[in-house]
Structure formats: structure tokens, C-alpha cells
Design goal:
The protein is of the alpha+beta class and 196 residues long. It has one domain. Helix content is 39%, strand content 20%. The protein is built from 3 helices and 6 strands, in the order H-H-E-H-E-E-E-E-E. It has a 4-stranded antiparallel β-sheet, with helices on one face. Strands 3-4 form a two-stranded antiparallel ribbon. Helix 1 packs antiparallel against helix 2.
Length: 196
């Protein structure tokens, strides 16, 4: 009986050591599940917002407010993202499905007849600031580089491909797996015919 009590007392120490080893691993696993879940949510939101924006850009075609409508669609589609997560949106002229915007466009430089680049502040602009006006009122319109008026939306002339590319930064909550990760997505669609 005495030996049995001695062995039980020794087991208490072993249990404490096992708990000290297993607890950090278990907590790391649980935090990993949370981090992966939040990151996956943001990844799906980016994919959804990109599809919504490309659909709207395709349907709006060559109307004067096409890019404004596209930004509103992206804003609605990205409602699950934290505020300020969208880093950059590029609307670009593509030649085929699967194209990517030019590297300068992805870096943030709009190129004439190639792409329009939108930053977070552009989501707050009104529809009146999206008419391809190059005059300063108080600044040139952000859609002036690849003006929606210049998009081919006639079946007889051939339809342009319009692409939407989005970059989002996801900040990790715990910081155990780094500080952030960047998600990018692109969707290219043909502009819907606006007339014959």
C-alpha cells in the first residue's frame, strides 16, 4: 500500500510535466485554427468582391459611371473584410480571359488606354467624380486613364475584355504566424454589348 501511494505521488509530477508540454502545443493549434479561419474568410471575400466588380464592369460597359458602379459592387462584395483591408483595385484592358494587368498598374501607376488604378480613398468619391474629366475639380477624375467611353461595347466592332484585379492585406490577429499576408485575385470578362 505504501508503495502504491508513493507511485501516485510521483504520477502527480509527471502529469504536471505532461500538461506543461501539451498545453502550448494545444494553444498553438487552436490559435492556428482561428488564424486560418479569419484568413480564409478574407480570401473568399476577395474572390467574391473581384467577381462582383468584374461583373459590374462588364455589364456597365462604356457608360460614364462604369468604374464608379464597379467600385460600389466591390464595396458590397467585400463587406466581410476589415476596414482598410483593400489596398488597390485595378480595372484594365485585357486581351483574353486569364490576363493580368501590366506590372505598372499592379504597382499603382495608371497607364493611358491600359488601366485605371483605385486606392482606398476612391471608394469615398461620388458618382460626379467619375466622368473621365481631366480638369482639376478639385482633382482629375480617377477613371480618366482608360475611360469607360473608350471601351468597345458594340458587337459589330468586337467587344473589349475588361479585367478587375484586387489586392488585399490580411493582418493576423495573434501575430504567431507573421504580421500579415497579401491576397490578390483577378477576373476578366467581355464587356456586355450595349448596342448593335
Amino acid at each position: 500500500m505504501v508503495e502504491r501511494q508513493r507511485r501516485l505521488r510521483g504520477d502527480r509530477g509527471a502529469t504536471l510535466v505532461e500538461a506543461a508540454i501539451v498545453t502550448p502545443v494545444l494553444l498553438l493549434f487552436i490559435f492556428g485554427i482561428f488564424e486560418f479561419g479569419f484568413a480564409f474568410r478574407d480570401y473568399l471575400s476577395v474572390a467574391s468582391a473581384t467577381r462582383d466588380g468584374a461583373r459590374e464592369a462588364s455589364v456597365a460597359g462604356n457608360t460614364s459611371d462604369a468604374d464608379y458602379r464597379m467600385l460600389r459592387a466591390i464595396q458590397r462584395g467585400s463587406a466581410a473584410l476589415p476596414d482598410g483591408a483593400i489596398e488597390r483595385v485595378v480595372v484594365f484592358r485585357a486581351t483574353a480571359p486569364g490576363d493580368l494587368p501590366a506590372s505598372g498598374c499592379m504597382a499603382g501607376t495608371a497607364v493611358a488606354n491600359v488601366c485605371n488604378v483605385y486606392e482606398l480613398a476612391d471608394f469615398n468619391k461620388t458618382v460626379d467624380e467619375f466622368k473621365c474629366d481631366t480638369a482639376f475639380n478639385p482633382e482629375p477624375d480617377p477613371d480618366r486613364f482608360w475611360c469607360p467611353f473608350d471601351r468597345e461595347a458594340s458587337i459589330g466592332s468586337g467587344l473589349d475584355y475588361v479585367g478587375v484585379w484586387i489586392r488585399v492585406t490580411h493582418d493576423y490577429v495573434t501575430g504567431l504566424f507573421g504580421s500579415s499576408v497579401t491576397f490578390e485575385d483577378v477576373v476578366v470578362l467581355k464587356v456586355e454589348p450595349q448596342g448593335l
